[in-house]
Design a protein that fits this description.
It is built from 6 helices and 6 strands, in the order E-E-H-H-E-H-E-H-E-H-E-H. It is α/β, with parallel strands linked by helices. The chain has 2 domains: 149 residues, 3-Layer(aba) Sandwich (Ribosomal Protein L4, Chain: A), CATH 3.40.1370.10; 51 residues, no CATH class. A 6-stranded mixed sheet has the order 2-1-3-6-4-5. The model has no long low-confidence stretch (mean pLDDT 91).
């Protein structure tokens, strides 16, 4: 698959061949994408929900009333789950929602997701992203010149501090690197902007 490389002004400067095999079969790799997205979203859950059991709620060990002779039901503790302020039966406890998938599946999922975005024309490749200093206006100008509408993900080859600081005040734009790009982020944004260095990094990961 061949793609056009643009400069920051939106003009085509060269044509490149993608260095990894793009999927032509629409069905192949879909399960891997699903597994990768489910695993990513599961790992984002904090898992800190916690309800106290009858042994943890505040209360006394004294029997509320004597066992027999009152006409009321027998009861031995105010921490009983059927009492107001008592413990919770089978309530949530701190846990990990992490789901593991193997490297081969993660690689397949990312390759499938990128292939679909390339085929849909939702990936823009530019020669470089160069910001002399953090400036939000520069990112907005870049998006305007590239004719990008909606949410966008800028992927650089290396950590670009100026780009990250320039985009952090724009709620619909994010910046990441080719080494940390995942399947979920590949599908989340309306448009993906790749630098040539980022494309080379992805080709190394996926080839």
């Amino acid at each position: 698959m061949k793609i056009n490389v643009q400069n920051i002004s939106g003009q085509s400067v060269e044509e490149l061949e993608i260095g990894f095999d793009a999927f032509e079969d629409d069905a192949k790799g879909l399960q891997a994408v699903h597994d990768a997205v489910v695993a990513y979203r599961a790992s984002q859950r904090s898992g800190t929900a916690c309800a106290k059991t009858r042994s943890e709620v505040a209360g006394t060990g004294k029997k509320p009333w004597r066992q027999k002779g009152t006409g009321r039901a027998r009861v031995g503790s105010k921490q009983s789950p059927i009492w107001r302020g008592g413990g919770v039966v089978f309530g949530p406890r701190p846990r990990s929602f992490r789901k593991d998938i193997n490297k081969k599946t993660r690689k397949l999922a990312l390759r499938k997701a990128l292939s679909e975005r390339f085929k849909s024309g939702e990936v823009v490749v530019i020669d470089q992203v160069q910001f002399d200093k953090p400036k939000t206006k520069d990112v907005l100008q870049l998006l305007d010149q590239l004719k990008v509408d909606g949410t966008a993900l800028i992927v650089t080859g290396e950590v670009n501090t100026n780009a990250q600081l320039s985009a952090r005040n724009i709620p619909y734009v994010d910046v990441t690197t080719s080494a940390t790009l995942n399947t979920y982020d590949t599908l989340k944004y309306d448009c993906i902007i790749l630098t040539k260095d980022a494309l080379s990094g992805l080709e190394s990961r996926l080839s």
